[in-house]
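Below: protein 1.
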Amino acid sequence: MRFIPSTTKQKEEMLREIGVASLEHLIKSIPEEVRLNRRLLLPDALSEVELEGQMQAISSQNSDFSRMKPLLGAGAYRHHVPSAVNALLQREEFWTSYTPYQPEMSQGTLQSMFEAQTYFTRLSGMDVAVSSMYDGATAAAEAALMALRITHKARIVLAGAVHPFYKDTVKTYLAPHGIEVFEVPHAACMVEPQALAGQIDGTVAAVIVQSPNFFGGIEDLHGIADAVHGAGDLLVVAVAESLSLGLLQGPGDAGADLVACDTNSFGLGLNFGGPHNAFLACRRQFMRQLAGRLVGETQDLDGKRVFVMTLRAREQDIRREKATSNICSNHGLNVTAANIYLSLLGTEGLHELSLLNTRAAHYLERALLATGRFEKLFDYPFYNEFMLKAKGGASEAAGRLLEDGFVPPLHVHDLLGEDLYEDALLFATTELLGRNDLDRAVEVLSR
């Protein structure tokens, strides 16, 4: 009886209370021809011991992901999370995932958000940052909506090397608004300047690029920013691998007007695909068009340092027609994880870790090319992710890696579908791959 939510007597009491004779009366509006009219084809009931044994047998068929070495990135990167992050995160004072509406009761949460905002603005080279959004893709979409509000123009240009999932999310957000979204094809996995120049004519609200882009390429943000601003448009830079900001120049310092960055690499595990977290940053003059909430620092009546929300632009907080967004939320616990992670590493630690990631990628690329079993489709500057063509076939190479305890790289054709990428693999490296791991991967792929 422990798994039965209500008894026959309880059901009869509920039916009397709502004034109907039977459960069938509640579904009488459903036509007979679409009803199942038979019992569900479910197996017989099991005892708890039998059920546990069956579930364990099923789970034993899974690979132990924690023991496999990752060569897969493509927008979600597995990094080491220091044990201190989860230890501190488990303190019950932080156990909130939503908005601290009462500042007098939420000083710790507000302080954590304020500190994270500070880190994010320093890393991105921007003036202001909302610390908590769903993920990088939705932050990029919110940046597009923000650009529309700022410029009152009706076109968005997407660089072709932006992650496909980011592009789909932006298009989905903009679809109800009747906004034209034009995608500029990439050249050799990078923004093609002439193709971009042909689309920025003063009618564009924003150009959205990603750096490092989907292929891991580091875009010339200075050159892109000059071209975009010369046409009187805004530049949005999306960042999927936040750890790159520990080494590369902040997009704001390179000329970006808005930055949408996924922060999953800052102290959050992959968690089977989520939840992630992201920040959205902008220049000070655009602050009031931000989606989400900003935390500020002030003094109370006794002169003590306190934290408050200084900007709340959601439909819960202001008149709905004036809200900048009604879908962005607050991943408060994830923001705290990022804050703890960045506090632990500090400026030097983040730089060293970021440098380690990119050195590992360049080492692996050179070693794979030296085997003669791989070739470059394109030559471009990259951070910790690069694309190579497997001469013996992508599926065969991925299968050998999987058998040897590696999470294989992305088969690019599976996501992009173009014949050009038939045997292309997108390799990613993080600090979880030591020199011995990289050498072992090369040895497996050179057999």
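Below: protein 2.
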Amino acid sequence: MKTWRVRGRELPLGPRCLVMGIVNVTPDSFSDGGQFVHTDTAIAHALELVRQGADLLDIGGESTRPGSQPVPLADELARVLPVVTALTKQTSVPISIDTSKADVASACLQAGAHIINDVTGLTGDPRMADVVRDFGAGVVVMHMQGSPATMQVAPKYDDVIADLSRYFSERLQTLTTHGIAREAIVLDPGIGFGKTRAHNIKLLADLAKFQQLGRPVCLGVSRKGFLGKLLDRPVEERLAGSLAAAAYALADNAVQILRVHDVAAHCDLVRVWEVLRAG
């Protein structure tokens, strides 16, 4: 059984898959932008996700949807820091911060957050690795080709599985050499981040191959655009497709964390899968 070390806490990852609830404190996220942009509504939504069974909360103040532009530091901090500060007083569920800015990460970790979820894999800000190391934070290292503004402009790979495996191997080596504990690192293939529909399907089909790297995998496929194209469904009608992708990953023992919008439904999925697997 793998564990995830996050600021002195050891989170067991397996045989049960953890569910990470998404809280977008943004006006323009692809799925629920604007719904929880105010501090009070974001806090209430986060606590509702905990009530529904979320094992982790992922708080983000900058949209990384295709074509999005960076948010100024002051704006991102104003969105997420009050939410994190309040949640650390109201729940014991570990809190993740979805950011690629070291200053946002540092402020939120000081406020009591446990995990940094960085879409750049700790390459976007030269100080991010120092922040993660110094706080002993857990970290989700994601793969993204390009930037959110450009990532869907003709993404190309020689072999998407082999290319991502090399990327993750390099990141693990670099970050552990920098002083970040290997046990603190989780990998995310970045579904929809610089990938075509074919790349996304290939990644999901062969997701179990990343287990060879020896670290847990976080899957963020909830409501993603390729599901909309595959099913011809708008974003609010992609739950069934999201659950199907998650179930496939669970069946292949390919994923230890599901990052989702619809927490209750995914918790039900995980629970039923656990019972069936146990026989």
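Strands lie at 2-6, 9-13, 18-24, 56-60, 95-98, 115-118, 138-142, 185-188, 218-219, 257-260.
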